[in-house]
Design goal:
Elements (H helix, E strand, L loop, with lengths): L7 E11 L2 H32 L5 H14 L1 H4 L3 H23 L17 E4 L6 E4 L2 E4 L3 E6 L7 E10 L2 E12 L9 E6 L5 E3 L4 E2 L3 H19 L5 H35 L2 E5 L3 H4 L6 E2 L5 E2 L3 H14 L1 H15 L2 E5 L23 E3 L6 E3 H17 L16
Parallel strand pairs: 8-11, 11-14
Antiparallel strand pairs: 1-5, 1-7, 2-6, 3-4, 4-5, 6-7, 8-9, 9-10, 12-13, 15-16
The structure holds zinc ion.
């Protein structure tokens, strides 16, 4: 049914670092200079474009790095790969900006990075500036840093990223050729859809609720944010509040990631193929199209709730979850398949009839075949049905009274 040829995958391992106070200051200095370089390179691009209408490429800027490192010893003291990576990041931000622009979105222009927004640097080639030795992380020009190992590393390390989080320094190893650990096949497939009130619904009607503690943490986060804005700029008390806020953020982020991993594992244990809707970020922020009613007017389409929906979609971090799910599936020898998202909540999963409904309508009621189903479950079934049709798998004729496809 599905080919089980995937023997390896990519995986990132993150471990906490235990730098000495001197090393910490050195790491801090590298970060500071990377941020300065990023902002300077951005400024250069902007002003050149304004003055002469010229777009500067990463390569043109990279060529200048050599001079920069020769002229400024503090940059000469930083491994060239780290600096190249800074320019690559800027380039990626630019590309994303123009891509979204041409997609008809309204992206924010690449912006200057403040002290709290730029918090990592990368060695793009393991063994060149960064390597492991006897359990220590050895960085060129900084030295041997102790690592608090939590698990062994599999595969081949490709890149090494050092990041500063609210509670200290971390190292991430991005590894390729990590051997997969296939989970037993179950012969089951399903579609999943993001729920309006719940985290997700499967085509079998199983529901995964949003973790409640996340709401609580979010309220605390809002409180911490308020505390920051109440305090005077530049004051020590404000700085303390900022640090507290960053810790809360980190806590929320970790809780969410943990929840995503657990949910993903639950799914890949149960199913061999999981169908999802391909994400179209442009659509999420658009107002829902008006739904005409029979009297020439418009049905309530939940436009006012759209803000709330956007919020919950962002909350749930659906995109991040799908990435984790895809990773986990690859690792377990299972598959995630994306299907085009149009009308998955409107179409009837029983007969295919399009039943238009606003966002506030929570139940799918088919006037054609009489199917009554939770809105999200109906969508999840459509996603599965569509995915299986695309793959040429016969539809679940037993559940759906559609004609089986591919027979
Ligand atoms: Zn129907």
């Amino acid at each position: 049914m599905s080919e089980q040829t995937v023997a390896t995958c990519r995986k990132t391992y993150q471990e906490k670092l235990k730098p000495t106070p001197i090393q910490e200051r050195q790491l801090e200095a590298v970060l500071w200079r990377c941020r300065t370089l990023y902002n300077t390179a951005l400024e250069q691009r902007i002003s050149l474009y304004r003055q002469r209408g010229v777009s500067l490429s990463r390569y043109a800027q990279e060529a200048e790095l050599k001079d920069l490192r020769a002229d400024l010893p503090e940059y000469g003291a930083i491994h060239s790969h780290i600096l190249q990576d800074v320019l690559t990041r800027l380039e990626k931000t630019y590309q994303a900006f123009f891509r979204r622009l041409s997609n008809g979105e309204k992206p924010g222009f690449p912006r200057f990075q403040g002290r709290n927004r730029y918090h990592s640097f990368t060695y793009k080639e393991y063994g060149n500036g960064a390597r492991l030795d006897n359990g220590y992380l050895v960085l060129s020009k900084i030295g041997r840093i102790a690592v608090r190992w939590s698990r062994p590393i599999d595969g081949t390390i490709k890149t090494v990223t050092i990041s500063k989080e609210a509670d200290g320094w971390y190292v991430s190893f991005s590894c390729a050729e990590v051997p997969v650990e296939p989970l037993p096949l179950t012969g089951n497939e399903t579609g999943i859809d993001v729920g309006l009130k719940v985290f997700l619904v499967t085509a079998d009607g199983d529901v995964v609720e949003n973790p409640r503690q996340y709401r609580k943490a979010e309220r605390e986060l809002a409180k911490a944010n308020k505390r920051v804005s109440r305090r005077k700029k530049g004051s020590g008390r404000r700085q303390k509040a900022v640090a507290q806020c960053a810790k809360k953020h980190q806590h929320v982020r970790r809780q969410r990631t943990d929840f995503h991993h657990k949910t993903a594992l639950m799914l890949v244990r149960q199913y061999d193929v999981i169908y999802v809707e391909a994400i179209q970020p442009a659509n999420l922020s658009r107002r829902p199209t008006p739904v005409p009613d029979e009297n020439g007017g418009y049905l309530h389409n939940g436009a006012s709730r759209k803000a709330g929906l956007n919020k919950s979609i962002h909350d749930a971090g659906w995109g991040r979850f799908l990435r984790i799910l895809a990773c986990k599936a690859a690792w377990a020898g299972k598959r995630v398949e994306a299907v085009p998202p149009a009308y998955t909540s409107q179409d009837c999963s029983g007969c295919g009839e399009r039943i238009q409904k606003g966002l506030s309508v929570r139940t799918h009621v088919c006037t054609n075949c009489g199917l009554v189903l939770d809105r999200d479950e109906n969508a999840a079934r459509n996603i599965q049905w569509r995915g299986q049709r695309l793959r040429g798998v016969p539809a679940l004729a037993g559940i759906l009274n559609r004609e089986p496809v591919g027979l």
